[in-house]
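ok so for the tutorial part 2 we go from a plain amino acid sequence to predicted structure tokens. step 1 is just haveing the sequence, like this:
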Amino acid sequence: MENEEDELIEETITDNDEGEETAEFEGEDISREVVVPGEVLTEDIKKFLPGRGTILNKERTKIISLNIGLKQINKNYVNVIPLKGFYTPRAGDKIIALVTDKNPVKYRCDINAKDEGVLKPRNTEKRGKSRGFRGGGSEHAAPSTDKYQIGDILIVKVLSADRLNQPELTTVGQYLGKRRDGIVISIDPPKIPRVIGRNGSMIKMLKNLTKSNIFVTQNGRIWLKGENIAYERLLIDAIKKIEREAHTVGLTDRITEYINNEKKIRGIN
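step 2 — the prediction. this is what the tokens look like for a chain of 269 residues:
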């Protein structure tokens, strides 16, 4: 039963969310040269608009980079995909969180961002229709913070996120909640789209060649579970190689060759 659940979790992220995840790396033209802050990306402001990681100069005659990263042209937007950076929470993101503290009214969670996330008890239980008693009472007790413990690994969804408040999380939803098995690793969040690949090509290849289930999330954390520990170690090594070489071309083919060679060297069938 657990294996079936793990399979469904992996399919959920690859089938439903890969389009959003890979969008940053699927522009019409992705330059593999690294650009730096202040570098002029284009002077054709009639044709192009500043996108993510870019800005117009004061004279509004050039688009310049705000980050160290890869230049990308997506339709008529010029973007710079950062090579390093914090995860920036967005409502609707499915991410992996670590419970770091709790009190009677909330959990505090490390979400690999500048601010910790907040998980309130009411967002850990599905809300059903309950019939209240006269006088305003309820037949159900108020949710508490007994469900999760400090150190628990949770798959959560971001309910809300803005600059003024800590991100609010929920574990209510299909495949959300505590993970009791598998391994969680972290990579730099901007490299996540490369682990997924164009149209999910990289993650499907990783899953098939290492006989593993994989759940990749926007905050740079990856849950994985292999057929055995040898496959899990190989998968982790492959993901770390992807992280190091995310800015290079032909990455999927190179990782495929790497895994096949390592399987022979390590004696993995």
